[in-house]
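Lecture notes, unit on protein representations.

Consider one protein chain, 343 amino acids long.
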Amino acid sequence: MAGGIVTTPTRFGWVLVIAHNSSFAAVAALPAPLLSMHAEDTTMCGIVGLYLKDRTLQASLGALFAPMLIEMTDRGPDSAGFAIYRDPVGENQTKFTLACDDPETDWQALDTDMEKALACNARMDVQGDHAVVVTDAAAMAAQAWLAESRPLVRIVGSGRSIEIFKQTGLPKDVAEQFKLASAKGSHAIGHTRMATESAVTTAGSHPFATGLDLCLVHNGSLSNHNHLRRKLERDGIVFQTENDTEVAAGFMTWELRQGRSLHQALEAGLMELDGFYTFCVGTADGFAVVRDPIACKHAVLAETESWVAMATEYRAIAHLPGADAARIWEPEPHRIYTWGHVH
């Protein structure tokens, strides 16, 4: 059976939507105005990801990835962000990406105070209103100290190799501010945001961290995020924004804390997260892509012997070396795609 989406008008202004392919079918009844809104998908956010299988390309990761992010500007001119995986630290160290909206933040004082309070070593690289701190303090102790002594400073990401940078403004300006084009690394995922359900803020920009060396970007909208937010808050998950994507990230975090694998957490997400979405999840060694059961949000994958790329639209991939000969396909709904060591 060929794949596709069939829509049938019903009484009372609802539309029956049947999405199917050779191995899967999904049925939903949607209000006609909602279906119309999602049909105009060009007004929604853009997501991109690039995983380099050829290590000789890692010196050019930023040069290859920055145009992907910038190409999605018309889909998300409000803010942009990216996670880049590079320079892994030692087994007994943690790399924190921090951010603060206060332009007078004394990052050097934070570094000195952390070393003194936690009897640890710490080194800091300041980039605009973000700072990357590498420390041999216990990760939980460092997080607790930051929350108590620097409540205005947000932990944007943490792990051994991940660094997350995000800011309001045009993607090209964000890329320039954080020197993306010159970055080296193994892989990156990014997002351009057109705010629909919450304010345009740096904190509300993507990616959102979901655990050590894990993060998530999202194109779409979740319909049950308020219900899930309340449930997750009761279970101890703390949220910094009203963004529905942060709820998806919080859900993944909670699932992983229960001992689930990332693949199991994504499978649970397909059952519990209602709405229209495409997720790209970055991990220490690769990334995963998943779409909702109806797959209303655009997505394309491309792969060569040298790299794997995903994007909301192919034009973000077209400049990559060998793209004209790549295997190119649309990811199927309700299926999890992974590259690298994603468990």
